[in-house]
TrEMBL record:
Taxon lineage: Bacteria, Bacillati, Bacillota, Clostridia, Lachnospirales
CDD domains according to UniProt: DEXHc_RecG (cd17992), RecG_wedge_OBF (cd04488)
InterPro entries (UniProt xref): ATP-dep_DNA_helicase_RecG, DEAD/DEAH_box_helicase_dom, Helicase_ATP-bd, Helicase_C-like, NA-bd_OB-fold, P-loop_NTPase, RecG/Mfd, RecG_dom3_C
Gene: recG
Protein name: ATP-dependent DNA helicase RecG
Keywords of the record: ATP-binding, DNA damage, DNA recombination, DNA repair, DNA-binding, Helicase, Hydrolase, Isomerase, Nucleotide-binding
Helicase C-terminal domain location: 451-610
Protein origin, superkingdom: Bacteria
Length: 680
């Protein structure tokens, strides 16, 4: 047996268990070995029976006094068993496991772990975990706690892992080259795998974990650096002239740029005059004015005789961009062409012709702008808005449409800098860290559904004063039909509750044209309240909207809540964000409370990471980051930095990974990314 063997070859894994493991994505021994513990329990300190304290998980060694007794409480059967050590006795209780009556041998000693409770003065430990103390017992230890799925218990999983480890002991090959392991003091692979599951000591655990985290980051970084090198080797970039055009353009805007916007423009100016291809990410909170920066860069490009294109992730947003670009560009004699998937054929043909002949200098659209059949006349600048919706590959496709056009990527997802370095490892980063003047902070409240009447009264009042409101119903995962029903039902209910308000509703299943119409009506003030799912979250700009009401707020990530909140507070009036949730978990409450405390997207994203862990924050779908098996993007930043250095050193030594000592690594990397779509 080796690591590639199917798990069914292990003694205790039969057909049914094989299926159950398969459902968890575990098929081979190697998959099993990479099923890392979620946490650990320290059973290395052992408590005497008389010293057991209430409500705290503790480990003790005790002998079984006599056979267990089964009984019944209504529908519940229970088993009681007395155990003892030299200091006292305690009762163990299991429910609905009648076999526990004889599962433990009378007179034998076991290691138990559980919480003591007191009932009518009796000391009981309910459903303790137990483990026989064999001859090789060397005191309690640190035990792993695994993510499980139905039909597989913690005890089983530990057993599988112990068996798998035994089967491959000492045979796992080392992929990290020796020089790297030496330089970064990384534990050897066999040791690491053994000790991540069953650590001999605390120190062994830390060494094991550090090695595995390093490896995971290292593979990712190496892949990213290689991608970046491919992008960089694309040749030299267009050198833009007429630097004054950038200055001059600012006079055409209805406002003065903030100093943060100017600073970013300065960085762009430098990039586009250096003779290299710009690959820059502009990060800025919602409402920080990224569009104006994009416009300035586009204007400059156009003054140099090139075309500029901006690609937005949704039709709504693309349409809105088209409108704002036209507003500013049309009076300057710059032609703006629009492209989208749902466009009428004739209109599209016209746009395509304009683009190909160079009559249109500015192109705005959705994914349609990178499709086959779109030929640019002379493309100089590619802008993508809301980057997290696009993959590198798409960005690359867009870049290939011209001869080395510059690339500007804009995102409102505030990501701590260290993380941005991984997510966008192939880009330079600019940050707009200032909002335009005169913005009022949005009043954010977290309430329970008990406040519903008051909330609706408040909505009514705002509408009476001429304002508008958004209401967000949660998305129903993987069931669009239910989701539509949900939104429809809710808006009907709301219309009945608020007879004086004009309630409209929009959802993801609607035709683009219909969606467009409803959004336009809302933007024009023909409707008062817009009910929707998050599908339409991105980018819409209605300054008269002052209320954002979010139902089941606990289901959203903080970063997402922040994005939604950014839809209001765009005008002169005071705006409000109301988070409705009945979740009573401590973390859930803390998260919503955090939203009420700060409006700073960066603070919020850090908090989100702390409270939820990056697994959720970086849902693979949302951010395109490969899921990490063991590394924690937030807590392991120190190791991440080392891994980055290591990856850079590796590629300097051996850019193609063709040296003998790097072949296992290359293979591992290919295997690692197989099945993962590297949509970074
Ligand atoms: P985002 O960064 O979220 O894309 P936008 O570019 O849509 O933000 O800008 C949000 C709003 O702020 C728009 O209405 C825009 O006209 C306005 N705006 C942008 N920059 C400034 C500025 N320097 N001064 C005043 N208003 C600005
Ligand atoms: Mg925007």
């Amino acid at each position: 047996m080796d690591k590639h063997s199917p798990v069914s070859e292990l003694k205790h894994i039969g057909e049914q268990r094989t299926k159950r493991l398969q459902r968890m994505g575990i098929e081979t021994v190697e998959d099993l070995l990479e099923h890392y513990p979620r946490e650990y329990k320290d059973r290395s300190s052992i408590v005497m029976v008389s010293a057991l304290e209430e409500n705290e998980e503790q480990t003790f060694i005790a002998k079984v006094k006599g056979e267990g007794q089964n009984g019944r409480h209504g529908r519940l059967t229970y088993t009681r068993l007395r155990v003892y050590d030299e200091t006292g006795e305690v009762t163990l209780v299991w429910y609905n496991q009648p076999y526990m009556k004889t599962a433990l041998k009378v007179g034998e000693a076991y290691l138990f772990t559980g919480k003591l409770s007191r009932k009518y003065g009796r000391r009981e430990v309910i459903s303790p975990e137990y483990e026989k103390i064999g001859e090789d017992f060397a005191g309690g230890r640190i035990v792993p706690v695994y993510p499980l799925s139905e039909g597989i218990s913690q005890k089983m999983m530990r057993g599988f892992l112990a068996e798998a480890l035994e089967a491959v002991r000492g045979t796992l090959s080392e992929e990290l080259p020796l020089w790297l392991r030496k330089e970064y003091a990384l534990a050897e692979r066999n040791f690491a795998v053994q000790n991540i599951h069953f650590p001999m000591t605390e120190e062994a655990f830390y060494d094991a974990r550090r090695r595995l985290v390093f490896e995971e980051f290292f593979l990712l970084q190496t892949a990213l650096f290689r991608l970046r090198n491919t992008l960089l080797s694309q040749g030299s970039g267009i050198v833009m002239k007429k630097k004054k055009a950038l200055e001059e353009f600012q006079a055409y805007l209805p406002f003065a740029l903030t100093s943060a916007q100017k600073k970013v423009l300065e960085e762009i100016r430098e990039d586009m005059t250096k003779g290299k291809i710009m690959n820059r990410l502009v990060q800025g909170d919602v409402g920080s004015g990224k569009t104006a920066v994009a416009m300035a860069a586009a204007y400059w490009t156009i003054q140099n005789g090139y075309q500029a294109v901006i690609m937005a992730p949704t039709e709504v947003l693309a349409e809105q961009h088209a409108q704002s670009f036209r507003e500013i560009f049309a009076p300057l004699g710059i032609r703006v062409a629009y492209l989208s998937g749902s466009q009428k054929a004739k209109e599209k043909r016209l746009s395509l012709a304009e683009i190909a002949e160079g009559r249109a200098q500015m192109i705005v659209g959705t994914h349609a702008v990178i499709q086959k059949g779109v030929d640019y006349h002379k493309l100089g600048l590619v802008i993508t808005d809301e980057q997290h919706r696009f993959g590198v590959r798409q960005r690359g496709m867009l870049a290939q449409k011209g001869e080395n056009p510059h690339v500007l990527v804009m995102t409102a997802t505030p990501i701590p800098r260290t993380l941005a370095l991984i997510l966008y490892g192939d880009l330079d980063i600019s940050i707009i860290d200032e909002l335009p003047p005169g913005r009022k902070a949005i009043d954010t409240l977290a309430v329970t559904t008990a406040y519903r009447k008051r909330i609706y009264a408040f909505l009514q009042k705002q509408v009476k004063e001429g304002r508008q409101a958004y209401v967000i119903c949660p998305m129903i995962e993987e069931n669009e039909k239910l989701e539509v029903e949900n939104v429809l039902e809710y808006s009907q209910m709301l219309a009945a509750e608020l007879p004086q308000c004009r309630v409209a509703c929009v959802h993801g299943k609607m035709k683009a044209a219909e969606k467009q119409e409803i959004m336009a009506a809302f933007a024009a003030g023909h409707t008062d309240v817009l009910v929707s799912t998050t599908v339409i979250e991105v980018g819409i700009n209605v300054p008269n909207a002052t209320v954002m009401l979010i139902e089941n707020a606990e289901r959203f990530g903080l970063a997402q809540l922040h994005q939604l909140r950014g839809r209001v507070g765009r005008g002169a009036e005071q705006s409000y964000c109301i988070l409705v949730s009945d979740a009573d978990g401590k973390i859930a409450r803390q998260r919503l409370k955090a939203m009420t405390k700060t409006g700073d997207g960066f603070v919020i994203s850090e908090m989100d990471l702390k409270l939820r862990g990056p697994g959720e924050f970086f849902g693979t779908r949302q951010h395109g980051l490969p899921e990490m098996k063991i590394a924690n993007l937030y807590r392991d930043t120190e190791i991440l930095k080392e891994a980055q250095k290591g990856a850079a050193a590796l590629l300097k030594k051996d850019p193609e990974l063709s040296l003998e000592e790097h072949l296992p690594l290359k293979e591992k990397m290919e295997q690692w990314f197989r099945g993962k779509s590297l949509e970074l």
